[in-house]
Amino acid sequence: MKREVTRTTRALIASIVAMVLCCAMLIGTTYAWFTDVSSASVSDIHSGNLRAELYKVIGNAEIKVNEETNLFDENVLWELGHTEVAYLKVSNEGNLDLKYRLTINVTNKTIGKTHDGADIDLSQYLRFAVIETASQYSSGDAARNAAESVSRLISAGFVSEESNLPANTKSDLIAIVVYMPEEAGNTANHNGTNIPSIDLNLSIATTQDAAEFENIEDSDTLYTVTSNEEFAEAIANAAAGDTITLSSGTFILPATAIPAGVTVSGNGAGNTVIGVDASGYTIENDDVTLKDLKIDGSATSSVEHGKAIYLKGNNARIENCVISGGGTTTWGASVCVILQEGETAYITNTVISGGFRGVLLNLQNGSAVIDSCEIDAVYPINVNGGGNFSLTVINSKLHGWTSYAQITSATFIDTEFSMGASGYDVVAAYTDTTFKNCTFDSAFKIYAQIPGFGFVFENCMKDGVAVTAENFKTLFPEDPGVWTGCTCTVNGVAVTP
């Protein structure tokens, strides 16, 4: 094994700095008047020289956001038509260029009751928009006028395009505009006992700009290994910030857990293979990355409920990999994610096949981000058991029956749905779901497994035909519950029952 201190982009290629801003919006009192109580918290997380902060802008002042920050005026009365605006900036305070993506989603909600006993789901009333603006708006009405054409229900959530931010600079002003439409009338007035509420989660994920990769000095240790003995020794001796680089060939993951903050990197999925035994392999520690290799889970395929890889560490990552195998019985999977509340796992640019379930999020409370992946399984993505977390899928291809329990939200962006080897081509939803710039083949079906949540479609195509509110029921006739038991909007227009 060659152990050397070298120039490497290990930590920064793999790192995502995640910041979480939680704002609780509680609607109160009766009739057409609403009160708001907001709070915000942000974690200041650094990774090497990649550092980002979030600032709230008030007039000419910029205030760093922390757990004491109020996003909106906590004393405001939310009457019909009222608008609130929060201005934010993302600040790159490290010496590396970065890219960032802004995500907003409902993480928790309490269904209220009217005086007549009808349900009140605030996420189906409040609308919001996220707008980059050169300056602050002159009034709430001006902000609402700018927001209305691009606004959406809060239940739909939001994921921005990726933006670049050079080192030691700040983003343009970001306005978050929230308003209560007049058409809500008195239908959101609670009975004084069963008070509705929603919690919003605003997160900013940052990664290093690829242009920086060749210009990084990294003092962490790089292990280059060529045998299983060296692989086991490297894992036993590695520390946070280290990279273990596997040469071309086939390796076996040792029983020892990969330490927190360590990356295991291959020479490409076509050249480096790591095998797991019949019990699979568990990523137990935080900030562990597997990348640029093939993970062979064939030894787990005949094991009942077998999983090739378990992701249990916060910020665990699989990048640029091919994963084959995993249990082929009902609860078998290629990847099983089990996290705690507030934790996130990332699977990026990876091809997954061979397990009964591709990615199984099992009885957990952590979120998952699946970006630029192709998954072919009976269940490409499956959430077993609800929880206070979200699912985000970006720029991916899903082949099979995708289903998720009563989590807070599911968002699919630039994702292609088509039939796989299983013969299924379905999304079966139990929670608020957004499809943005997605394509569905002719066989695709969508089901609302329970009533009372919302579907949002934006700029989607089915079998080459643009999806509209007018043709929705013709294109997706299988389950009328999508537009009768649930709310369904297409490009901002409601599908009528």
Description:
The protein is mostly beta strands and 497 residues long. Helix content is 5%, strand content 43%. It has a 14-stranded mixed sheet with strand order 1-17-18-20-23-26-29-32-35-38-41-44-47-48. Strands 19-21-24-27-30-33-36-39-42-45-46 form an 11-stranded mixed sheet, with no helix packed on it. The longest helix has 10 residues. The chain is globular and about 70 Å long.
SSE layout and pairings?
Blueprint lengths: L1 E4 L4 H5 L1 E11 L19 E2 L2 E9 L2 E4 L18 E10 L5 E13 L1 E2 L5 E2 L6 E7 L6 H8 L4 E2 L4 E2 L3 E3 L3 E2 L2 E7 L17 E12 L12 E5 L2 H10 L5 E4 L2 E4 L10 E3 L6 E4 L5 E3 L5 E3 L2 E4 L9 E5 L5 E3 L2 E4 L7 E5 L6 E5 L2 E3 L3 E6 L4 E5 L2 E3 L2 E6 L5 E5 L2 E3 L1 E4 L4 E5 L2 E3 L7 E4 L3 E4 L2 E2 L4 E4 L5 E5 L2 E2 L2 E2 L5 H4 L11 E4 L2 E2 L3
Parallel strand pairs: 17-18, 18-20, 19-21, 20-23, 21-24, 22-25, 23-26, 24-27, 25-28, 26-29, 27-30, 28-31, 29-32, 30-33, 31-34, 32-35, 33-36, 34-37, 35-38, 36-39, 37-40, 38-41, 39-42, 40-43, 41-44, 42-45, 44-47
Antiparallel strand pairs: 1-17, 2-16, 3-4, 4-5, 4-6, 6-14, 6-15, 7-12, 7-13, 7-16, 8-9, 10-11, 10-15, 45-46, 47-48
So what's the overall shape?
globular
Give the strand content.
Answer: 35-45%
Structure annotation, total helices: 4
Enumerate the spans where pLDDT stays under 50 for 5 or more consecutive residues: 2-49, 213-219
Can you give the mean pLDDT?
82
Radius of gyration: 23 Å
Q: How far is it from the N-terminal to the C-terminal residue, by CA?
A: 66 Å
Neighbour order of strands in the largest sheet: 1-17-18-20-23-26-29-32-35-38-41-44-47-48
Biggest sheet features: 14 strands, mixed
As a percent range, the share of helical residues equals: under 10%
Q: How many beta strands in the DSSP annotation?
A: 48
Query: Which class best fits the helix and strand makeup?
Result: mainly beta
